[in-house]
Amino acid sequence: MGISVTGRDVITVDGVGASGKSALARLLAKRLGYGHLNSGLLYRAAGWLMTRSGVDVNDADKVMIELSRHSITLDKDVESRTIVFIDGVACGDELHSSEVSLTASLVARYQPVRDKFTKLQREAFLPGGVVAEGRDMGTIIFPDARVKFFVEGRLEVRAGRRYEQLKGTPQEATREEISRDLAERDARDAERPIAPAKPAPGAVIVDNSDRPLDEVVEAMYRVVTGQSE
Ligand code: DC
Question: Where in the sequence is the domain holding 168, given as residue range(s)?
C-alpha cells in the first residue's frame, strides 16, 4: 500500500464506541501534522436532526427527506478537533447525549445516509494528510489507506471513560446505563449488513484498555513512521 489514490497520505483509525479512538486519532494527527476526520460526528449530526424533528428513525425515506432539508459540513479547530456544522451552526456537546448516540447508530444503518457522507469524508481537509476515524474508514471510505488501525477496549473500561466524560453535563448517566447502551450500540454497528464496524484486512489491532494514552499514540506513531518491528 502506498499513498492513497486521493493523492494524499491516509491513516485510518476504526474501532468500537468509547474506545478512546477519537483522542488517539486526534493526537496522532497532531503529531503527524495531518487533519483529523472524526466521521462519527457526521452520523451524530444526522441523529441529532432526527431527535429534534421527531422523525421515525425506522423509516429510511423519512430520514433522508429530513436530511435533505439541512446542510451538514465539516471544519477543524486549532487543536485539530473536527467541528461539524448543521446549517452553518457549529455543534457541541449536544451531539454526545445517550439519545443522540443511539439515533446516530440507527441512522448509520442506511446506505443512502452513508452515501450522503462519502464524498465529504473522502475530500475532508484536502490537500494534506488525514487521520480518518470511525467504523468503516479502512474498509469502505479509504480502502487504500497506507496504515489502518482498529481500536478495541474492555467494556467496563470504555463505559467508565464515557461516564467520566459525561459526569456533570446535562448528558450525565449511570455507569450501568452507559455500559448497556454501549454494548447495544457496538453490537448493532458490528452486525449491520452495510459497512459493519470491523477491522479492515491488514489492520493493526490496538487495545486501549490499560496503557496511558500517550504510550498508545507513541506506539501508533512508530507503526505509521515504520519504526516498529
Ligand atoms: O464514533 P462515534 O461513537 O462518535 O459514532 C457514533 C455512531 O455513528 C456509531 O454508533 C456508529 C456510527 N458511525 C458509523 O456508522 N460509521 C462511521 N464511520 C462513524 C460512526
Answer: 10-222
